[in-house]
Amino acid sequence: MTPFNFARFGARPLFDKPLPVGQLYFPSWERYEAASRGIFERQYYNNNGPLHSEFESRLQEFLKVKHAICVANATLGLMMVADAMQLKGKVILPAFTFIASAQALSWAGLEPVFCDIDLNSHQMDISKIETLIDDDVCAIMGVNLWGGACDPKALGEIATARGLRLFFDSAHAFGVKIDDTSIGNFGEAEVFSFHATKVLSATEGGCICTNDDQLAARLRSIRPSYGGDAPVNVLRVANARMSEAQAAVGLMNLEDFPAHQKNNAALFSLYQSELEGIPGLHVCQPSGVSFSNFQYAPSVIDEAAFGLSRDNLVALLQSENVISRRYFYPGIHRGIPYAQEFPQYVDALPNTDAVCASCMQLPIGALVEKEGVRQICDFLRRAHEHAPAIQKMLGV
Ligand code: T4K
Which of the listed residues 288, 333, 339, 385 has the most CB atoms within 10 Å of its CB? Predict the structure, then answer.
């Protein structure tokens, strides 16, 4: 018998294969094969193909939004939105997000202004926005994290009152609702990610949503969409087209979204009930929404109460083939190039730093089974119970 039965000390890992934080909801082979056959028969793979058009229409219906503009991935979508909105100057956003949020601004020639976050929800702390606004700030980029939302209505009020433009990185928020309104309908535009790890996956991909006809026309011309609507004048064009193969998987996963959401919701609630009562370990509930996709299972470790640091726990979990991740670490304000270019933010975001140092993601999604969640939770309980001895063995 190895100490505590942990793989790190020689036991067999909990899982035979790596279990990542998020995994692709693959449609069945038969459905994929049938869709691929159609693509091969039509010999048309890109640029406003029939599956692509159908995917956009279905997304518009599903989200009750006027324009859903599919793109190759959300990073390109965010870059396009910043460019199409013809923004100049500075944009307020949180530093607790994936690097793509800030990089999209950099590509569009915009300067980030990093806002701290709320310790409990991990969303941007909108009470801090007023103090960040100066004459050069032109817009706010809200980021809707973890299947929750950053209070888009309140952000809309601030933006209107202060004459700022508003758009959202909603990479994590497909299918999420506030009352009866789907995320996708707030601000001037919102961008979803359809990466493999997202609840609605097109293998890779994304979608820009807007209710503004003129902005939509500019976005379609930037993407571009030859053969579609008549192009309008734009300064730059990109190639951000989504392929027929991506759209095919997106369509199948859109059909299956209710089942995938239910699966995620059940796993999330199991994590919550199984981990309840373990000191120093808290699963962060998606905040500010009436309906979540439960796409992530962010968990915060209080080292003093749990007995082990977040980083030690992530390493122990990885030995068990549970590929937990430190999302997001470090905060964007501490990484390249932002720490060098904008040093004023490095020590100015205490809540962001605290969450970056304590948050880890647990696996949730297609490959995770309820029994797997129970095993991970049992492992975490044992890690807490034996924390002093584990620390000794790790030499920390
Ligand atoms: N804004 C925010 C707030 C975001 O979180 C993101 C992306 C974006 C914007 C930009 O969206 P995209 O341009 O990506 O559409 C991941 C994802 O690449 C990224 O989409 C995601 N957020 C970010 C938080 O995490 P990695 O480096 O962890 O991804 P990767 O490729 O290692 O995948 C993670 C795990 O998922 C793998 O270990 C295994 C599993 N996986 C992955 C792929 C690609 C599968 O099971 N099947 C697969 O096909 O960045």
Answer: 333
Is the CB of residue 75 below 6 angstroms from any atom belonging to ligand 1? Answer: yes
The CB of 193 under 6 Å from ligand 1? The reply is: yes
Name, in order, each residue with C-beta under 8 angstroms of 312's C-beta and a sequence gap of 6 or more.
390, 391, 394, 396
What pLDDT score does 48 carry? 87
As a whole number of angstroms, the distance between CA 75 and CA 240 comes to 10
Domain final residue, candidates 217, 252, 287: 252
Q: Which domain holds residue 20?
A: 7-24+257-394
Query: Cβ(169) to ligand 1 under 6 A?
Result: yes
- Which residue minimizes the CA distance to atom 42 of ligand 1? 196
- Band of pLDDT at residue 227, cut at 50, 70 and 90: low
| CA-closest residue to ligand 1 atom 18 | 195
Distance from Cα 358 to the centre of ligand 1, integer Å: 20
> Are both 358 and 218 inside the same structural domain?
no
Ligand 1 atom nearest the C-alpha of 75 is: 13
pLDDT at 263: 96
Whole-number Å distance between alpha carbons of 188 and 85: 9
Q: Ligand 1, atom 23: nearest CA belongs to which residue?
A: 98
pLDDT at residue number 1: 57
Write down the pLDDT at residue 224: 84
CB distance 121 to ligand 1 below 6 Å: no
Does any ligand 1 atom lie closer than 6 A to the CB of residue 22?
yes
C-beta separation of 165 from 87 below 8 A: yes
Same domain? For 288 and 230 the reply is no
The preferred substitution site among 98, 101, 317 for testing ligand 1, maximizing ligand atoms within 8 Å of CB, is 98
Instruction: Tell me, in angstroms, the distance from the centre of ligand 1 to residue 324's CA.
Output: 13
| 0.90 surpassed by pTM | yes
- Do 357 and 17 contact (CB within 8 A), yes or no? no
To the nearest whole number, what is the mean pLDDT of the chain?
Answer: 96
Name which of 247, 266, 267 is nearest 255 in CA terms: 247
- The 10s digit of each residue's pLDDT in 31-46 is 999 999 999 999 999 8
Residue 2 lies in a domain: no
